[in-house]
Amino acid sequence: MPKWxxxxxVFAKISIRRYFRDKVALFFTVLFPLIFLFVFGSFSKNNDxxxxxxxxxxxxxxxxxxxxxxxxxNKMFKVDKEVDNLxxxxxxxxxxxxxxxxxxxxxxxxxxxxxxxxxxAIIYYDQxxxxxxxxxxxxxxxxxxxINSKLVKSPAPFxxxxxxxxxxxxxxxxxxxxxxxxxxxIGLGIFGPVNxxxxxxxxxxxxxxxxxxxxxxxxxxxxxxxxxxxxLFSIGIMIAVASSPLxxxxxxxxxxxxxxxxxxxxxxxxxxxxxIGGWAKNENQAAPLANIVVFPMLFLSGTFFPRFAMPEWLQxxxxxxxxxxxxxxxxxxxxxxxxxxxxxxxLGLTAIWAVxxxxxxxxxxxxx
Amino acid sequence: MAEVILEVKDLQKxxxxxxxxxxxxFEVKKGETFGILGPNGAGKTTTLEMIETLRPIDGGIxxxxxxxxxxxxxxxxxxxxxxxxSTAFMDxxxxxxxxxxxxxxxxxxxxPMDLLKQVNLEDKASSYVENLSGGQKQRFSIAAAxxxxxxxxxxxxPTTGLDPQARRRLWDLxxxxxxxxxxxxxxxxxxxxxxxxxxxxxxxxxxxxxALDSPKKLVQQLLGRGFSKQEQIEQANxxxxxxxLTGKELGR
Lengths: 368, 252
Fold this sequence. Notes:
heterodimer; A: alpha/beta; abc type-2 transporter like fold; four-stranded mixed β-sheet; two-stranded antiparallel sheet; 6 strands; B: alpha/beta; four-stranded antiparallel β-sheet
């Protein structure tokens, strides 16, 4: 084993041991992201429900009973159980507790002309929720057309068939978990070194290393190595909890590829922490700079809020933040089952950032 | 005449207009203990830091065992051991691990317990530095500075802030290191320390060396200039009383 490998391994080993003895560090890197997982994860649990609706059935026909039953089973809707008349429904709509109300009139589904059941459902909606009502209307329209075509056997000349392209489908939880992995990487990679590097300078700990023949790059490599191992540990715990029956998060991609990409992400983001912490003489220099760098990524890279919900121009801008390709890449491998070869743009962008960041970090580093 | 291990010629360092080190020259022989004395701001620490490769040399030359410090700093780093003013180490790391890490910085593997025994800290092997006393920290930091068996050992104000017992224990330790043949260069505020440890001392003031000789000769020179102390020298002083009452060997 070459001497420099030995040097790096000893340094990495000792900083990993030190991490496991540091309860504060353990809290912020393991428990803290888990708290976020519980908070955001429980928001996104009912991820199949698109609409909360009220359903008022004034008819006693067999058809209407069946229709109500089908609607309740439909995963797109969550039917509010408390609504049984239009008045409650309207009150709930005005408080935005439900998006719209479907009323089946008394004659709905009754057999007229001795042939087929017929009727007209009415959708009530609040002014605030026009789009929800329109979507609901087209969904019901589609449902009715399906029934109509069974009753009236005349083939429709035009039709639209929708087919799912991705059987797994992306749920909100998929975005939440990949975003929180990004959050973990930031916590460990930036907030960590930004705190302890200036402290080690103040205490003269880095000065002591400066006296030895230890090279800056050896110090960097050992720090990256220990950070990557610690990162995989804390992210591993988060994925394990997310995959538990509590959240039902499913990784369909290759674990090895996922770990490889996460290590690349940790390496890149930790470089930012190394650059800031290595440059700063004290906490007063490090903290403001860290905040300027971290906050845009924290809110705009898809950590807590999925980027698709942003206005288009902002999506374009935020594509190029260092954390964005990392979070996207993690999600694509973990939940879309993509391979490293499929995520060239994410890999490339992350690698470019890594080169830029480490070029800066090497130049900015000061032992004292 | 022992061979010269450190040769300093016309060494200079300026901060802005202020000349912190103003063209000093001296030689240190192999196995010698050399002291640099002087008030705060005299340039002692800056001088050491230039020889230790920690600060760029503005002018002049420093040769360590014939090697130019400014030109081959990486080579110099393997030859020197430095005990810094700060005795802080990484927290939550055991003494044995810290020594292991320190040695690894030189690419070496050592037996940490062996070193800890030399500085009487073997029973603290699994402690963290933050839980040691001031004197123990100083002793440990000497052990850490010697992991790679350097040719020259630099100590910057090693006993500042220690109580008298701890100071004496440290002196004993430094003497032990001397006996192993190590060249020692130290700075200090304490004249007594210089008298006890150093074979020769350089007295610095405002960046210049104002006197350089053995402590005894310096005193003789002073007396030769017709100096006499106003009060008669006492047979014992208050420090001796303190040490007698509190016990030197029990000190921590």
